[in-house]
Amino acid sequence: MVLTARSMRIDADLGALADVRMFVRNAAADAGAPESCRYDIVQAVDEAATNSIVHGYAGAPGWLEVSASLEAGHFVVQLEDGAREFDPTTLPEPDLSVPPLARKPGGMGVHLMRQCTDAMTHRPRPGGGNILTLVRATGPDWKEG
């Protein structure tokens, strides 16, 4: 299966997230990803994009570029923004012993991103911002569930 790299750019607006989800869903399908994995990677990207828009830009105007490619048996999604720098890979895992109704709102998004991907890396964007890469294997190593 060959998927040429493709990308899309949106304004930092929550209303544009449906387009991002559709873009990732279609790219993952073109890469031959099983349905359960397409669901997972779309969830991870949606959470990352939402965090960029809500927390990174915090109401200020901005943009988000999303690219998808198939690289050596891995479906790779890269999110690039010009928002304030934030590395989600440095956050500790949440305390899952706390019942959901007893938790403060928020704080589970990065955990969800980790659960839905095989790898997540961050690097600062030259000139400011973030480059977040989310990776899922496309062959027999697909992480199910």
Please describe what this structure looks like.
- This protein has 145 residues and is α+β, with helices and mostly antiparallel strands.
- The protein has a single domain, classed as 2-Layer Sandwich (Heat Shock Protein 90).
- The chain has helices spanning 17-30, 35-56, 109-115; strands at 6-11, 63-71, 74-81, 119-124, 130-137.
- A 5-stranded antiparallel sheet has the order 1-2-3-5-4, covered by helices on one side.
- Helix 1 (17-30) runs antiparallel to helix 2 and helix 2 packs antiparallel against helix 3.
- The two termini are 23 Å apart.
- The model has no long low-confidence stretch (mean pLDDT 88).
CATH architecture: 2-Layer Sandwich
CATH topology: Heat Shock Protein 90
Q: What is the top-level CATH class?
A: Alpha Beta
Proportion of beta-strand residues = 25-35%
Radius of gyration, CA atoms, in whole angstroms: 15 Å
Strand order of the largest sheet: 1-2-3-5-4
Q: How can the largest sheet be summarized? A: 5 strands, antiparallel
The name of the CATH superfamily reads Histidine kinase-like ATPase, C-terminal domain
Residues in helices, as a percent range: 25-40%
Tell me the distance between the termini.
Answer: 23 Å
Tell me the series of helices and strands, N- to C-terminal: EHHEEHEE
Please give the count of helices.
3
Uncertain residue segments = none
Structural class computed from helices and strand pairing: alpha+beta
Number of structural domains: 1
Q: What spatial form do the alpha-carbon principal axes imply?
A: globular
- Tell me the total number of β-strands: 5
- Mean pLDDT, all residues: 88
